[in-house]
Design brief:
With 410 residues, the chain is mostly beta strands. Helices cover 6% and strands 41% of the residues. Strands 6, 7, 8, 9 and 10 form a five-stranded antiparallel β-sheet that branches.
Length: 410
């Protein structure tokens, strides 16, 4: 991003964000207040970047919607890294949870520069709803139990919960600098990636009470993934070129490697032995050995490698090249690019359809959403969006539980 002036853009975002920070001392009170009014009419968030008035750009978004909370619904067990392990074994088309099969599939698009979320029908590609949220929403994140979607309003310092059954937003939850959001594999903690403060903030996910924080000393921490045994995570630091290892038992940084460039999206290999880290300014993907914390391979993809999404069968990785207008397909086993699909947009973040036949990606700079046929690589549809569409979530998807981001399922 620095080479294209994005560091300066994010710096201005930080400046705006600091002026409106919620104090942690009011977080608990605000959440309790929200919980007691959960059946009241929904708040749609900040009206615009210069106003705190609440309004909605769609009359349907004013419907009442309670704040759904995360509860235990799945069993997680650690897996050893190595041959015979497949961390994506429960994300095949047949693995949509029974309690989610009646939930309507929708595409949720947060528009970072418009402070809105647009909702699209994946069959007709039509816009079916749009509502205001907090300032600068970056990602729509499924909760660990997959009962709630959270819009990460990073400058607004709030999360907007969405009930995926109705598709409607609930009252905002005050959380400091939620640029990204993840959940530990056991569902115990919600991890808010407070990018501008270089912190991982661990929250209790039913009350949203802040419990503890882990400081990341490098600038730009924003995307992470967990080891197969759930004992540690690796997080990328986009603005400084580092990848950092955090032990989840000691809650301490235990390793780091400087890969240079701008490391962004991070994904565990199916066998759990290495991490794939997209690098936007090196235009490819680093393969990181998490035990030695070193880059053991670099896979060139296309200009601006940004997001990484496993195929539905877990054998391939779809890498969005945001600056080159393409998607590279990497074979997980050979670690080689086996196909390149030209999109004609600026593909960013998104997800794979439940049946695996489509890849949906937001177009951060092209102000659109691109739908790609994963069998042929052809663009099926480009859909106009508002300004700055970013962390698109396609929901529901197969899996026992969600570990966050736009849909990192296991």
């Amino acid at each position: 991003m620095r080479s294209l002036g994005q560091a300066e853009i994010r710096s201005r975002e930080v400046a705006r964000g600091r002026a409106g920070l919620w104090r942690r001392s009011v977080i608990g009170l605000a959440v309790l207040t929200a919980a007691t009014t959960a059946i009241a009419a929904c708040s749609s968030g900040d009206d615009d970047k210069n106003s705190s008035s609440s309004s909605s750009s769609s009359s349907s978004s004013s419907s009442t919607a309670p704040i759904p909370t995360t509860t235990t619904v799945a069993t997680w067990a650690p897996l050893p890294a190595g041959p015979g392990t497949n961390v994506y074994q429960y994300t095949s088309p047949a693995d949509v949870r029974p309690d989610l099969r009646a939930v309507p599939t929708r595409i949720y698009v947060p528009n970072s520069d418009s402070d809105t979320v647009q909702v699209f029908d994946p069959v007709t590609f039509a816009l079916i709803d749009e509502f205001k949220v907090g300032r600068q929403p970056h990602h729509v994140v499924p909760s660990w139990d997959m009962k709630t979607l959270y819009v990460n309003n990073t400058v607004g310092n709030t999360l907007t919960p969405i009930d995926p059954v109705t598709g409607k937003p609930g009252p905002e939850i005050p959380v400091e600098d939620p640029y990204n959001l993840y959940f530990t594999p056991d569902g115990k903690w919600a991890i808010v990636v407070a990018e501008r403060y270089q912190r991982l903030d661990f929250y209790e996910p039913t009350t949203w009470r802040l419990d503890h924080s882990v400081r990341i000393r490098h600038s730009g921490p924003n995307h992470l993934d967990f080891s197969s045994d759930g004992k540690y995570l690796l997080i990328s630091c986009e603005f400084s070129g580092w990848v950092v290892k955090v032990d989840l038992e000691s809650l301490a940084v235990t390793g780091e490697v400087n890969v240079g460039g701008q490391p962004i999206d991070t994904r565990l290999s199916p066998d759990g032995t290495v991490f794939f880290v997209a690098n936007q300014s090196r235009h490819g993907v680093s393969v990181i050995d998490p035990n030695e914390m070193r880059e053991i391979q670099f896979i060139p993809t296309g200009r601006g490698a940004h997001g990484i999404y496993p195929s539905r069968d877990g054998t391939k990785a779809y890498v969005s090249n945001r600056l080159g207008g393409s998607v590279s397909v990497i074979d997980f086993a050979t670690r080689q690019v086996v196909a390149t699909w030209n999109t004609g947009s600026s593909p960013d973040m998104g997800g794979v359809s439940a049946d695996g036949s489509q890849l949906w990606l937001s177009g951060r700079y092209s102000k659109d959403v691109t739908v790609i046929d994963t069998n042929t690589g052809a663009v099926i549809k480009r859909i106009a969006a508002r300004n700055g569409p970013h962390g698109l979530a396609l929901f529901p998807q197969p899996g026992r539980f969600s570990m966050g981001h736009t849909g990192n399922y296991r």
